[in-house]
Design goal:
CATH class: Alpha Beta
Shape: globular
Order of helices and strands: EEHHEHHEHEHEEEHHEHHEH
CATH topology: TIM Barrel
Number of helices: 11
Strand order of the largest sheet: 1-7-8-6-5
Helix content: 40-55%
Number of strands: 10
Radius of gyration: 18 Å
CATH superfamily: Glycoside hydrolase/deacetylase
Strand content: 5-15%
């Protein structure tokens, strides 16, 4: 059997009207080095990636602490090795660290053996450097393959957050392998709205435009009493004026409803799948 299978949603803790997960992909330099060896010499590009750890991450942590919101940070193994000290406080702060590859290699561009190597190296780095009890995975560039899915199952992962087959948690199934899926969507990711690279024709979304789109999705989730995941990158959302937009969004959501802000591993636990 192939295709999504529904998961029954429970009553949210505390009688909340809706569940929201704030998630952050801490790609840092791995996000570019995984694109090819040429990026090793692109110092300006790598400096912007490093900005996410140096400036973006501390701002995000301060906002989450102020708002008393636990979050999930998807971290490549290479980032854990390069920036161990910067990431070390996430778990004591009450956040989750989850798997995001090792060198942020896209699963659809490497063979099965290399996909397995990415999983194993990433796991080792997160556990050895950060002491992270890893149970969740997000594929770089959100491209999950049957081989990666098989590896996740064999290595005992509890959930994945890479697919878009529903806007509610569901079970992603391919052949004999399946996993709890906490779905994502490009429109709910800060990268398509804000990220820019030289030579591109994209225009940047204004902070107010981002709030409009994400708040509209929140209203839909609220009406259906479901869960929603927002995906962000420290080098993107961590710019001062953009983080102010995230803070404003949190305020607007809280004005509209009672919210259970949840880490992905906490959500997987309450869904009681696997």
């Amino acid at each position: 059997m192939t295709g999504p299978q529904p998961v029954e949603l429970p009553q949210w803790p505390g009688g909340a009207d809706v569940a929201v997960s704030l998630t952050f992909d801490v790609d840092a330099e791995a996000g570019w080095l995984g694109e090819g060896s040429a990026y090793a010499g692109r110092l300006s590009t790598l400096s912007e990636a490093r900005y996410g750890v140096v400036r973006g991450l501390p701002r995000i942590r301060a906002l989450l602490q102020r708002e008393q919101i636990p979050a999930t940070f998807y971290v490549p193994g290479d980032t854990a090795e390069r920036h161990t000290a910067a990431l070390a406080g996430l778990i004591p702060d009450g956040h989750e660290i989850a798997h995001h590859g090792y060198l942020h290699l896209r699963s659809d561009t490497i063979d099965a053996a290399e996909q397995r190597r990415e999983l194993e190296l990433g796991l080792a780095a997160l556990r050895d450097r950060l002491g992270a009890p890893v149970t969740g995975y997000r594929s770089p560039a959100w491209e999950l393959t049957p081989q990666t899915l098989q590896g996740l199952v064999e290595l005992g992962f509890r959930y994945d957050s890479s697919c878009m087959g529903d806007d509610r948690p569901y079970v992603e199934v391919h052949g004999e392998h399946q996993i709890l899926e906490l779905p994502v969507h490009w429109s709910l990711d800060d990268w398509p709205h804000f990220a820019w690279r030289p030579g591109g024709n994209e225009t940047l979304t204004t902070p107010s435009g981002l709030i409009e789109v994400w708040l509209a999705e929140f209203e839909s989730a609220l009406a259906e009493h479901r869960h929603i995941t927002f995906t962000m990158h420290p080098e993107v959302i961590g710019r001062g004026y953009r983080l102010a937009a995230l803070a404003r969004l949190i305020t607007l959501m809280r004005e509209r409803a009672s919210i259970w802000f949840t880490r992905h591993d906490q959500l997987a636990e309450i869904l009681n799948y696997g």
